[in-house]
Amino acid sequence: MGGWALSIDFGTSNTAAAHTSAVSGRIETLALTHHGNLLPSSVAVGAAPEHAILTGAAAAAEADRNPGAFVASPKRFVGQVPSVRIGEVDVPVEVLISGVLRTVLDRALAAHNRQMPNRVVLTHPEGWSQDQVAVLVNAAARAGIDPRIVVTVSEPRAAAHHYSRAASTEPGTKLAVFDFGGGTLDVAVLTATGSGTFEVVAARGDNGLGGKNFDARLHQWVENTLASDDPEVARALRSAPMHVQRTVDEQVRRAKELLSESPSASISVDTGRHRHTLTITRAEYDQLISGDIDKAAGLARSTFFDAGVAPGQLAALYLTGGSARTPLVHTRIGQLGPIATLDDPKTVVAQGALLAVDRASAAQRGGDTSGGDVPAPTRVLQNPVPPPPVVPPQPVVNPQPIVTPQPPADPEPQGRGRRTWPIVTTAVAALLIATGAAAAVAWSMSGSDDDQGTVALADVVTTTSTTADPVANTTERQVTTAPQQLPKTDILRIGTDLAPGEYAVRPLDASGGYWERLSCLDGDFDCILENAVVEGNGYVKVQSGDVALGVRNLLLTPIAAPVTTTPSVATVAPTVAGTDGQGFVDVPEARCNHTNNAVAIARTTDSLVVVCETGAGRYYYKGVRMADGAAIEIDDPAPSGPGKFTATNGAVQYRLSPSWLVIIDGSDVVGEETMVEYWSK
Description:
The chain is α+β, with helices and mostly antiparallel strands and 681 residues long. Among the domains are: 170-337, ATPase, nucleotide binding domain (Nucleotidyltransferase, domain 5), CATH 3.30.420; 579-680, Lipocalin (Beta Barrel). The protein is built from eleven helices and 39 strands. The strands form nine sheets. The protein has a nine-stranded antiparallel sheet, with helices on one face. Strands 1, 2, 3, 4, 10 and 11 form a six-stranded mixed sheet that branches. The protein has a five-stranded antiparallel sheet with strand order 7-5-6-21-20, with helices on both faces. The longest helix has 26 residues, at 282-307. Residues 367-450, 457-485 and 560-571 have low confidence and may be disordered.
């Protein structure tokens, strides 16, 4: 069997993929579930000790059991925080993403007799920085994909290439891509080049506008209609278990999709004891989402203005993304330019990505050095070299702490500090690529239904790593040009011998090395906050609160602080009266702490509430009752649906939604407060 290529469009809400067919060699959409071509981008983190990354149906099932373990959209964290707190574990964002990428890879391998592809193309938003693209490439490496065969291309370029198959595009032709997905909207204007590639002229995005907004509007309609038509069912739904509410969310999504093709749709609400069926017409639905679509059209107009083109100068306005199938989108956006659609708008980016890379490679071979479709951080690697053979790393049993001659009893000691996620070393990743085996990383698909995936990382020795390949310059950290020489085996006191910060670590020889962060120097086992055995290139972040760093047989090199950039997205201002981006002005009990930003703000008939996001990807809930000033603050409320959060304080739950604040003590509803004003990101 000849070589083949795979592309993965990792989206905010859903993921799509395409491959070159094993039979025909043509580019085809890859089926990712039994039911269709899309895989939800959401993941869940399984229970200890494995903490497996669950995808698909397995993630949804875990979310029902443990909502706090569910991450609805890992893509939103890229470039915002390095890791997300799940229970007592800090999980790197790239680890969360790797679970989705691995599930896609497994589906593709099944169609190609388990033969690895010779090229993998990953798509990303046009506005992503080099560091953000690096997170995606690193996630692919964790999923078992050799970084040397990875190519990245922006989503609008990929879409433009897909559509250009059906229409000729002379040099200088201007077209626009309106990518309306489940969680985000991205608009770009592109110009065709003489080499058959495309150059992005202008791009804008809104991370708070997408199909999830339509879901929230329709869900609120369900709650309001039930409150009017059948108050008993409405009350039962507000206090129903999470799996019942998730079923209603699925009914809402199905109705939304049906309304793209039918004049009406039904939504059944079944709480176990009560059942009620609602019917909504397309005209009613259009009225609900009209404001969101007007906002999307406004973003498109602004992008056209940035590009210096009038809508009439566009050769085509291509609609991509699942939300682009909405008839009202076609009507409103069609007023801005000639609408063009082709195939399933949810999968055109994945298909176009393979075309984009082929054409860019051809342009480079032809001597075109303009960079047209391959600007940084997009990379095209021609004739990738297969990975060299790697000696399997030996598991380390009972690593001996540097500060004591006695080996610890546990091979993976945990200190009193926060746990960190097991991270795959370069050597392990290369081993997985070279052999396809799971000597150190156990990849498995759980259950008989391949709509659900499980990536188990329990057997990996706790290790920290940077990007594997020196060829992949776009994914490597930048190291200072004059590295400080630090002791190879020693106890380095923080603040005296070593400054807090990030350090690259490398063993001095093939025997490997070892490091441990310490909270004390008395030789006690509990002094170890975190430790790692290093087989290849590694990484350690020394915290300011650490007492010392112990190293054995390692060369440490300080890493320069990475350059951070802000994605080009619109900021959604809160619409609740008397608030700003941190909550209620002059009401500290309903305002985010420090410089944290609000993700939801609510004014009910009785209370003021704000849900805030920390810089570590965690949330907290603050609320105050207006009548008596009684206030509460709760850590880690769980997102439980579009614009919804559930905060748990002992046996009491506070369920916040666009329509209600419901307070449940055990199984009893002790408070129901009607929403007066509500805003969420």
